[in-house]
Amino acid sequence: MNLDAKIPPGPLAQKWDRYKSNMKLVSPANKRKFDVIVVGTGLSGAAAAATLAELGYQVKAFCFQDTPRRAHSIAAQGGINAAKNYQNDGDSIFRLFYDTIKGGDFRAREANVFRLAQVSASIIDQCAAQGVPFAREYGGTLTNRSFGGAQVSRTFYARGQTGQQLLLGAYQAMCRQISLGNIHMFPRTEMLDLVVVDGAARGIVVRNLVTGDISLHSADAVVLATGGYANVFFLSTNAIGCNVTATYRAYKQGAFFANPCYTQIHPTCIPVSGDYQAKLTLMSESLRNDGRVWVPKRKEDCDKEPAAVPEAERDYYLERKYPSYGNLAPRDIASRAAKEVCDAGRGVGPGGRGVYLDLSNAIQRLGENTIRDRYGNLFDMYERITGENAYRQPMRIYPAVHYTMGGTWVDYGLMSTLPGLFIIGEANFSDHGANRLGASGLMQGLADGYFILPYTVGNYFASTKPEKIPVGHAGFKKAEEDVRQFTRRLLSINGKRSATSFHKELGKLMWENCGMARTRQSLETNLKHIPELREEFWKNVRVTGSGEELNQNLEHAGRVADFLEFAELLCLDALHREESCGGHFRGEHQTEDGEARRDDTNFAYVAAWEFKGADKKPELHKEPLVYEEVHMATRSYK
Amino acid sequence: MNLTLKIWRQKNAASPGGFETHEARDVSPDMSFLEMLDMVNERLIAAGQEPFVFDSDCREGICGTCSLVINGVPHGGRKGTTVCQLHMRHFQDGQTITIEPWRARAFPLVKDLIVDRTAFDRIMLAGGFISVNTGNAPEANALPVSKEIADLAMDAAACIGCGACVAVCKNASAMLFVAAKVSHLNYLPQGRAEKDRRVKNMVAQMDQEGFGNCTVTGSCEAVCPKEINLDFIAKMNRDYAVAVVKGELKANSGGGVG
Ligand SMILES: Cc1cc2nc3c(=O)[nH]c(=O)nc-3n(C[C@H](O)[C@H](O)[C@H](O)COP(=O)(O)OP(=O)(O)OC[C@H]3O[C@@H](n4cnc5c(N)ncnc54)[C@H](O)[C@@H]3O)c2cc1C
Ligand code: FES
């Protein structure tokens, strides 16, 4: 199969306009004849559902939370990028595009990233019009802050709640469409399979999480906006419900999965405190605006109170190693640098797995009140979790799994290798390459949902004119039976271990052998142990209760079952990629001073994996990354 | 530390419910309350018993999913803290803790510690939005909003929709939630055009859902994990009064198409 990204011809800056002027349109009167399923109502899904409904399509939207307003997107603290150049500091579409491509270590698709930068400004306009209470200056204009990987100030924010406020905007737009009867919303409903008829995505099988009822839904197109797979590591900064089920089951139905090994470890999280922990908590990267990261120069000082370590004995290692970006070095680089100093025995706090994030200079310079105004909620959260007051002593932080750049492969129109199946937001692979820059996840989700997908879905309908498929079709019946069978099987094992215990064990394998640094040997260890763990799971998991009621244990077991398969794909991808790039750091491929060594001759491609059947090796397909506008350079933040 | 837990067990709204007592041993003070419950559930599964179901997702105090009444207080009574962010260091060894779901007529029980809060969504459907289609937005800085107004709107918008305000109120009133939602949008110039119908429709829906009346006891503000201010209720009452008065002065909407 030939992977055709269907990138429009012409100069980079004109591709999206050309696409829009050449695409086929569905007339206003015909739009309501088309049904679209949107699974996932985080930023990307809620934006898409609302916009598609405004255009006149009939939308059914699904999420597993009790309301769309609680999707994982809500947790984003720091902000959203846009090339508005409100600070007059030289920002432009090209600069945002270039920063994103470079931040992604030249492993993203150029045309998609350029389009992202192009539509970024409209996102801010749209959100402001919806009533998102962005931070403002006294004069009433919008204000900005800086984020990692950029030398301009282009990040918009709403106190420490940017994600919640943007999500509320999208949710409210959905509410309006629900009240108008254009969206039918199914909360507490989980998609358990994709239905493919004659090679095209035609519907989904879902389970009502309250009653356990399994039902079938048919549509002309299916959109997955189901988020990332960071929880394959068990401990991550993601909400505990985040999972890979929807995209993994789509993969098993034929949608290629791209670059699963590109996972992001965020440098500023609260360190692990015990094995009872259900998740890790992020301290927004925005703190690095005013905070300085350091560890003691000498091991002997690591157990001292931080205040007892004199200035001259502190190693501000990011400022030392990366003088031009300093504390704002991109995430992958800042995380690895933290690991390096801790590996060298200079970490602080329990187990020596922590570094200081110190805002005392900024507090002195600007006063405690200004800092409280900027980051008060983060300081409060830090105190609730650790019991320590960060106005008095530096925070202790350590990297944690945060975001996944890999995802379902999509073409320029955000359609997967299965016609009619579109993937948006964190669930797709397209815009962040091997590393995502701060404040660009929200931007991408909203770009996809508000400004890209609504056009490309229309183009698909107008050019293919899909016929209606009733849910009585054999394809639907088979998918339903498979789902019932899967649930019965989980409930019938009645073994000795909980799903959580398997999830934790998998997470440990992934963190230790496929986390911040990977080697052939560590990955081979995982490729041996993961199948064993999976086998044990299917013999020894204990799922209590029944399938005909609200059963969180059953829900979790199903997600863990998918993680146990998906983890293997992730490790396989990491093993095959014999280079270091962005969040994928292979110990064998580094420069003398420990920086990532990319191999553009052999690995400048997207790795898209095709499912070939259970217990068969997936097949690798390559989409070459061709850069027309930018020159692939060695990334330097020095 | 070791604790005695009295946890609400109820199969569904139609079945009767009651407290079950469980011992929680070796609880670390650094655990969050929900991690402590996770541990209890893991032990129940190991013993072949059914775990308790409770709602949670982000576990960092922002999604508004977690919803437990602890010793009679929604979210456990620590200032500005959701139960997922409540840590065990605030409890004492040997303590007995009762754990119950939100209780309110408009929040019917689903199972054990989970209730149905979709009444809040239906209030939002009644007018909790600004009617602007994607693509219609003017340049963001074309409409300046003073920092004071933007900050007030943000204070109101900080509501996470958890429903603790309803759960703590002796009348099970949803006034603080609705006031926060109305105020967020009504303060902003972008939301002005629909100000009157918004407040009227949302209040009407609130009443229809079976939430009780507000007698301004202030208990809602005290338990709100985002510390939403009671003043927003006054603001909403003002907006409501204005809307009712204006409602009596209708513009002539006819005019014909001649
Ligand atoms: C703590 C934290 C802070 C962050 N801060 C920032 C930031 O400051 N700036 C930034 O740009 N990015 C940030 N990010 C990243 C960003 O928030 C996410 O990448 C983005 O919100 C993902 O949005 P989404 O729409 O793709 O998916 P999500 O918001 O994850 O939504 C997924 C949706 O899919 C549904 N779903 C999933 N599986 C199923 C299924 N099987 N059936 C039915 N429904 C399903 C869920 O119910 C949910 O509605 C942060 C991430 C984290 C973890
Ligand atoms: S679980 Fe999200 S607020 Fe508690």
Looking at the structure, what is the overall shape of chain B?
elongated
How many beta strands in the DSSP annotation of chain A? 19
Major sheet: arrangement of strands of chain A: 5-2-1-9-17
What is the level 1 CATH name of the largest domain in chain B? Mainly Alpha
The fold-level CATH name of the largest domain in chain B is: Fumarate Reductase Iron-sulfur Protein, Chain B, domain 2
Could you name the ranges of chain A where pLDDT drops below 50 across 5 or more consecutive residues? none
CATH superfamily of the largest domain in chain B: Alpha-helical ferredoxin
Indicate the percent of residues in helices of chain A: 25-40%
Helix content estimate of chain B: 25-40%
Main β-sheet description of chain B: 5 strands, mixed
Determine the CATH superfamily of the domain at 266-399 in chain A: Succinate dehydrogenase/fumarate reductase flavoprotein, catalytic domain
Largest inter-chain interface? A-B, 81 and 79 residues
CATH class of the domain at 266-399 in chain A: Alpha Beta
Number of helices of chain A: 17
Number of strands of chain B: 7
What does this structure look like?
The complex is a heterodimer of chains A (638) and B (258). Chain A is α+β, with helices and mostly antiparallel strands and 638 residues long. Among the domains of chain A are: 266-399, Succinate dehydrogenase/fumarate reductase flavoprotein, catalytic domain (Flavocytochrome C3, Chain A, domain 1, Alpha-Beta Complex), CATH 3.90.700; 474-603, Methane Monooxygenase Hydroxylase, Chain G, domain 1, CATH 1.20.58. Chain A is 37% helix and 14% strand. Chain A contains 17 helices and 19 strands. A 5-stranded parallel beta sheet of chain A has the order 5-2-1-9-17. A 5-stranded antiparallel beta sheet of chain A has the order 11-15-14-12-13. In chain A, strands 16-10-18-19 form a 4-stranded antiparallel beta sheet. In chain A, helix 3 (43-55) runs parallel beside helix 6, helix 4 packs across helix 5 and helix 14 (499-514) packs antiparallel against helix 15 (520-540). The longest helix of chain A has 25 residues, at 552-576. The mean pLDDT of chain A is 95. Chain B is an alpha+beta fold and 258 residues long. Chain B folds into 2 domains: 3-110, Ubiquitin-like (UB roll), CATH 3.10.20; 118-252, Fumarate Reductase Iron-sulfur Protein, Chain B, domain 2 (Orthogonal Bundle). Chain B is built from 8 helices and 7 strands. Chain B has helices at residues 33-46, 118-125, 147-157, 164-168, 175-187, 195-208, 219-223, 231-248, and strands spanning 3-9, 18-24, 68-70, 73-74, 96-101, 109-111, 114-115. In chain B, strands 2-1-5-3-4 form a 5-stranded mixed beta sheet. Chain B has a two-stranded antiparallel ribbon with strand order 6-7. In chain B, a hairpin with a 2-residue loop joins strand 3 and strand 4. The radius of gyration of chain B is 22 Å and the shape is elongated. The termini of chain B are far apart. In chain B, 51% of the residues are buried. Classes of the chains: A alpha+beta (638), B alpha+beta (258). At the A-B interface, helix 3, helix 5, helix 6, helix 11 and helix 12 of A face helix 1, helix 2 and helix 3 of B. Residues 56-59, 61-66, 82, 84 of chain B line the site of FE2/S2 (inorganic) cluster (FES).
